[in-house]
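Incident review: delayed structure delivery

Summary: a single-chain prediction request sat in the queue longer than the usual turnaround. Root cause was a stuck worker, restarted by the on-call engineer. No data loss occurred. The affected request and its eventual output are reproduced below so the record is complete for anyone auditing the incident later.

Affected input:
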Amino acid sequence: MNLSSTFRLLALAALVTAPVLAQQTTRRVIVVPAGATPAGAPAAPAPGGTPAAPATTGLPTAPAGATTVAPGPGINREEISPEQKAAMKEADRMRTEKARIDAEVALAEAKRTEELAPLNAETAKLSAERALRLAKASAEAAALEDERAKLERQAALEAARSTARLSERNNKIRELEAEAKQLQLEAANTISRLSNELSRFQKEDEARKVATKAKPKYLKEPLVDGTLVISDRRIAFNGAVTEGLADYVSQRINFYNNQSSEFPIFIVVDNSPGGSVAAGYQIQKAMAASKAPVYVVVKGFAASMTAVIATLAERSYCYPNTIILHHQVSNSARGNMTVLKEQVEFTNRWFERLGTPVAKKMGLTLPEFVKQMYANDSSGDWQAFGEKAKELKWVDNIVERIEETAILDLLPPAPTVVAMPTPRTAQADAAGVVQKTDDKGHTYFELPALSNPFDAWWIYDPRGQYRSR
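Output delivered after worker restart:
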């Protein structure tokens, strides 16, 4: 049996026995008037002040003028007044009520104790669990603190090691930098010495390649005893005739004129198959406008538009085995029959304008000139070596030797500023002709597009090496 059940049984027993106990504990009430001595009380003092002997009952003496209620033998209720009876009855009732209330309080306390027992147990459990968690948390915190202290010690140790390594590395870097500076100094000294030696060798080599005693020869009559003397007033003319080449040649004709109009200018043709009619005409007009004489020298081969330029020059020179070729203007027209007819007619007008002066110099009309072309070659490509070309008046002079007095060294051109304006590109690139390879592996030259819509190609190309864009 648990504690709560015991408390409950005790409270129930007290509630049942409370009336019985109240009846058994009823006391007698003695009402003593003021100044009287109840039965069994000590006697009043004798006259003279000697106190009487105390009563044998040993009860205390009530104070004077008070009513005393004391236990004693039962009181006859008939002897007391009704008010006293009511008071006694009320006292009994109050005792009975007090006993009942005490029993109820005991029972309520037992119930409260029983109800609080699980809560107290749960509280004790929670307190125990809380204490356990606090203990675990304290243990974990202590472990974490130990780990933190350990990590701090390790970090401090690693930092010290890193500082030591960094210091060692910095010292090594300073040593390497010092070594590098020393090596750079030694290398600079070595390079300077080698550069001086190389410069000396280059100067010695250049001295061997430079004709120090020679100078360009400027002659108003450049043909001397069958030798053509060419000065540095020369213009290289090679490849197809294009707008770029025409600009290149025209600029140099103007420059040499501004430099001096006394001595001749030489256009030197190594090999040129001809090209644009409009570009060739531009070159012809630049030659005609020049105050200084412009002479054309053909060393290897000149055809089509280039042959016209050579033939119509103020003077022209070539070797005996130089080949000059004249033919009609070609056309790459596209379109319907009417358009083709119009373009052919316009190309014929170009040929009349440029071919007629050539025929006139030969003493022929243009139709006779064309007839002679096909009489000498079924394709109309009339070619002739130097001597025959002179007979036909395609060139003016045959020379056995050409003296290039402007070539005074074999050094590459230096990037120095000169009085003559430099071309936009080298002469080989000025023409705008690009060497390419087609899908079949054949090499060809791509001609630039004709910007003049009325231009035409006057070019000798039997093998199809030149292709227009």
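Verification: The chain is about 50% helix and 15% strand.
Action items: add queue-age alerting; document worker restart procedure.
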